[in-house]
Design a protein that fits this description.
Blueprint lengths: L9 E9 L6 H9 L6 E2 L12 E2 L13 H6 L2 H17 L11 E6 L5 H14 L8 H5 L3 H10 L5 E2 L7 H15 L4 E8 L4 H9 L10 H4 L15 E9 H6 L6 E10 L12 H14 L8 E3 L6 H15 L7 E3 L2 H4 L6 H15 L1 E2 L22 E2 L4 E8 L3 E8 L2
Parallel strand pairs: 4-5, 4-6, 9-10, 9-13
Antiparallel strand pairs: 1-7, 1-8, 2-3, 6-7, 8-14, 11-12, 13-14
């Protein structure tokens, strides 16, 4: 077996997104900087009896533009998003598999919930038409690792391949674990991120019963308001965000365009409660501190934080506290925004699109705002880049995600 450096530098060479704000990176980024909101009334099902009737749906997207129509029919909506975002990212990276070592190219695209549309539709078939009418593609379509598998089949990539499931931290964990594989020499290239399509009757019923979602149904565009005093719950979004990452040497050898370096990653657990974050921010602050240490940067060197910022009363308060714990006086100087104010919360895909945002922020020197920030909360008193984008030199970015189960993940990207 070849000897590979165990501490290689890792870079980002490709990006792809499917969101309510755009079906490619350019459209998505333009809408984000303009402060546009992708939240509207739910159209995927009749939500009139639900306490939350709004969401950030992906509208007008045809997966058959990037996916075999036969595979579209056989697979779940979450896989459509993840596969197509991966195809975009691979095309963006200009990775040529005829010249790559297929055994050293891997895929980890996670989903927090997986094939909810498939589960609900096939359960209806079972009840109405009996077990013999349930699709033979049901099980492959619903499982959360299938997107990774299909992307690998499409590419012919035989390297590390699986799905990660850690609720709303899923995509950040997927990117972080892929980063470790490239850095350690287990792989040269990883296609990584997350995909989600949980705007379904059953998923909404469950989240509404938890009273986790906003009930501001009359003002969909204003409902997601992270860090604002009047926030009342998250708004669900759907879509996917995928990166291509590879070792610096591999990228340079093939003449790839390098966007930035992925420099640090950490994962922790609150070990506190199944849904509520630790009120002292212990787990998240540890994740941020360890990610910074892994990247060998200080809090003062972070120019921008893409916060988890879900627009729930607990998360935003405790995330602010965790940032203050880690950053000290520097917490007052660092720019922070929650782009979920525009995209909604993509659950297991959130970290994927927010990784793309982090990379674009470094590339462009433009910081996306936190829209709908109108009434300051005394517990959330940092610089959340309110309502309007900001132009500023950004060399180093920290991005956070938290998931039910107390799971935390953080990534550090920096200018190469």
């Amino acid at each position: 077996m070849e000897t590979v450096s165990s501490n290689r530098r890792v870079v980002v060479t490709g990006m792809g997104v499917i969101t309510s704000l755009g079906h490619n990176v350019a459209d998505f980024w333009s809408a984000l900087l303009a402060g546009k909101c992708g939240v509207d009334r739910v159209s995927l099902f009749d939500a009139k009896d639900y306490s939350c009737q709004i969401g950030a749906e992906v509208r007008g997207f045809d997966p058959a533009t990037l996916m075999d129509p036969k595979e579209v029919r056989r697979n779940d909506r979450y896989t459509h998003f993840g596969f197509c975002a991966a195809k975009q990212a691979i095309a963006d990276s200009k990775l040529d598999m005829t010249k790559a070592d297929a055994d050293r190219v891997g895929v980890i695209i996670g989903s927090g919930i997986g094939g909810m549309w498939t589960i609900e539709n096939q359960h209806k078939v079972l009840l109405e038409r009996g077990p013999r009418k349930v699709s033979p593609f049901m099980i492959p379509a619903l499982i959360s690792n299938m997107c990774s598998g299909l992307v690998a089949i499409e590419l012919g990539a035989r390297g590390p391949n699986f799905g990660i499931v850690s609720a709303c931290a899923t995509a950040t964990h997927a990117i972080g674990e892929s980063f470790r594989m490239v850095r350690s020499g287990e792989a040269d290239v990883m296609v990584c991120g997350g995909a989600e399509a949980a705007i379904t009757p059953l998923a909404y019923a469950g989240f509404c019963s938890m009273k986790a979602m906003s009930t501001n149904n009359e003002n969909p565009q204003k409902a997601s308001r992270p860090f604002d005093l009047n926030r009342d719950g998250f708004i669900m979004g759907e879509g996917a965000g995928v990166l291509v990452i590879e070792s610096l040497e591999h990228a340079q050898a093939r003449g790839a365009t390098i966007y930035c370096e992925l420099a640090g990653y950490a994962a922790t657990c609150d070990a506190f409660h199944i849904t509520q974050p630790d009120p002292e921010g212990k787990g998240l602050s540890q994740a941020m501190s360890r990610a910074l240490k892994d990247a060998q940067v200080t809090p003062e060197q972070i120019d921008y934080i893409n916060a988890h910022g879900t627009s729930t009363p607990y998360n935003d308060k405790f995330e602010t506290l965790a940032i203050k714990k880690v950053f000290g006086e520097a917490a007052r100087k660092v720019m922070i925004s929650s782009t979920k104010s525009m995209t909604g919360h993509l659950l297991g895909a959130a970290g994927g699109i927010e990784a793309v945002i982090s990379v674009k922020t470094i590339q462009t020197g433009e910081v996306a705002p936190t829209i709908n920030y109108e009434t300051p909360d005394p517990d959330c008193d940092l610089d959340y880049v309110p309502n309007v984008k900001r132009s500023a030199p950004v060399k180093t970015v920290l991005t956070n995600n938290l998931g039910f189960g107390g799971q935390n993940a953080a990534l550090v990207f920096r200018q190469l």
